[in-house]
From TrEMBL:
Sequence ranges assigned to domain ABC transporter in this UniProt record: 4-288
UniProt entry tagged with the keyword 4Fe-4S: no
Molecular function terms from GO: ATP binding; ATP hydrolysis activity
Full protein name: L-proline glycine betaine ABC transport system permease protein ProV
InterPro entries in alphabetical order: AAA+_ATPase, ABC_osmolyte_uptake_ATP-bind, ABC_transporter-like_ATP-bd, ABC_transporter-like_CS, P-loop_NTPase
Keywords: ATP-binding, Nucleotide-binding
Species this chain originates from: Psychrobacter aquaticus CMS 56
Gene3D superfamilies recorded: P-loop containing nucleotide triphosphate hydrolases (3.40.50.300)
Alphabetized Pfam families for the sequence: ABC_tran
Amino acid sequence: MNHIRLENISKIYNASSSQAQAALALLAEGMDSSEVKEKTGYSVGLYDINLAVKAGELHCIMGLSGSGKSTLIRHINRLIDPTSGKIWVDTSINAKPSTMAKIAETETSSSSINILALDDKELQHYRQQTVSMVFQHFGLVPHMTVIQNVAYGLRVRKMGVKERHDVARHWLHEVGLSNLERSYPDELSGGMQQRVGLARALATDNPILLMDEAFSALDPLIRAQLQDQLLALQERLNKTIVFITHDIDEAVKVGQRISILNGGRLVQTGTPSDLRHNPADDYVAQFMSAKT
Ligand SMILES: Nc1ncnc2c1ncn2[C@@H]1O[C@H](COP(=O)(O)OP(=O)(O)OP(=O)(O)O)[C@@H](O)[C@H]1O
């Protein structure tokens, strides 16, 4: 069952509606994003993306710098709104393993909503209850202790201090940081800070986790440890995870499926094996052959 579905999503930056339509028309003729930028002056973030992320899957978005990865993931929590298209999210799905098993069995019709139609209040609710994000540079609040950072999303939901700290403690334990709850972020290494970032995202119990180059700032050894930890947690949690990376080795290691972007276009979605054995074009083939 699909959890998130992007339907014909295009994003032209800093253009009025008519200017964006002109850029889209050139893209529809087959012009690539750098030519469109040259001709019109507008940056193409994404062009005509159709992508379904299944409930409970860890889906990697891969591509070179500027290919549109961050633009894509930021549409899912509406940090960015598209120029055109729709974004469907099934808000009835939660990530409890029992629910996921039921969903897998039934494949019933979904109760997806187009999140672009949400008003401000509904959007706030959607961000609090459905999607969490882990950022590349951690995004911790420097003057809050570790436990306050992890409990932050629960405080926003007005959960009482004891209860939210109990939940935060549980997640700090899960990521291996039990003894650091009173520390401040700048007292921790990068790897520890990102574990706090992960615990904070998990503490809300939201079913969708967005990870934007979440491990890219870390040393290779620590990065590998966090990848392993994410995979171990995911075994139990069954979240729907959209994981951005520019590193094909990381994508192959953690991704059940991988979507490859090039110049704002979605080139191919498939399992690592699909991409290896049936690459859609030379760009995909080069990524797969560059894999160590
Ligand atoms: N705020 C913005 N204003 C104008 N153009 C933008 C903006 N954000 C992104 N772009 C352009 O959109 C295209 C896609 O950028 P995006 O950051 O989504 O790619 P990316 O694959 O995440 O790259 P990176 O790996 O370097 O972060 C690029 O050409 C970029 O210059």
